[in-house]
Here is the input.
Amino acid sequence: MKILDLFRHFTKSDWHWMSKFVASPVHNQHSTVSRLFAFFRKKLPEQEEGILSENLSKIIFEKEALGPAKLHHVSNYLLRVTQDYLAWDEWAQDEQAKSYYLLRACRRRGLDKPFRSHLARLQRLTDNHTQRNPEHYRFRYTLALEEYQHSMQAGRSDLGQAQALSELHDLAFVAEKLKNACILRSRQRVRQRDADAGLLSAVLDLVHRRPALLEIPAIAVYYFGYLALDEPETDDHFFALKTRLPQAARHFPTHELRDIYLLAINFCIHRINLRQENYLREVFDLYRSGLEQDVFLENGQVSRFTYTNIALAALRLHEFEWTYQFLQDFRDKLPETQRAGAYAFNLARFYCERGDYDRAMPLLQAMDFDDVLHNLTAKAMLLRMYYETGADNALESLLLSLDAYLRRKSQLGEQQRTAYQNTIRLLRRLIALPAADADARRHLRLEVQETLLVAEKDWLLRMLA
Here is the structure.
């Protein structure tokens, strides 16, 4: 039943308000629909299997003995009422949408004085609001369009109004087109496929010809963001974007600011992967600034991947005190089911980088990490510690188990698999090297340097130095 797909995602609040919705004759005039909803509310989610039985009609409508066709008809009515509730719930939470529809209702009903009063109030609120993202300009255009249509109805529209309407439409379109261009370009890089950007070239040319547009945060941020994505080897676009992040923090909602930060962070990661180590400081600064703005929190939680990436960036810069404090401060903001594993993994990495192997080893040996990449990184840390402490038997056992793990895990990408296989091969070569054979060490060091994919490459080079 289609209706079950919706009810499975209902919150306690949804069940409460939906019961009022179904009871309202404005939205539902069928008693059978009310009874069917009451049955679902009582039975879901604990007894879902019984709901799907063929005897459902008899259970709910035992006196009428409605057939399956009638039950299907009633469930379709309930589906429509539920869909109306979901639409109403979204509308009720969006004050801007409610204000717009009230304004439109006043215009369409010819309520001239209420229309002008409500329009003036909305314009004041919009002008005084700090938000200046693309959605802000789209709403301003919507208000201008309503004002123009109201003037047309009254027979008093003029060229100035039409010009203002056109300019607001341009601002809204340019800002949203650049935002969408960033989304499209990001997806292209992930999927390695071409895409049609439509009117993007004309928009880029317009901004280039009218640099005053770059005074508008919603345009400047996405303009330089797109150029940074499109020309990832050019520094200037990234730094132009970075200088505008404080402005974006004042004028963009948190969820949108998060996407902008991630765009800038991914630029840095690309440069770091090219071994341009100066971008480690840049990405760390972005993470630290983003934490201050709460952009990495969703519903009060930080994902374990973000938690790990932030800690890694700090550790690579030897920001040990900052890293330890970060791990403690954000531990309880991790999803509860992943909290113990993510915290133990990152604390172990912290101790490993500090050379405190006595604290790092137990944390890694006691955990079985559910994420493949976390598992591989944990095993790589143990390889380092076993080698450096001379735990030869443990090292050999781990090399064998890691090799089997790489062959067993089909979900691993080929590059990841190859990087760890190369690490096993090169580490075995290192173990077998005669201590006094300087030429052999030099040749192996050169081989490590020239091998493109090696996990723990920097550590291997240090061991061969």
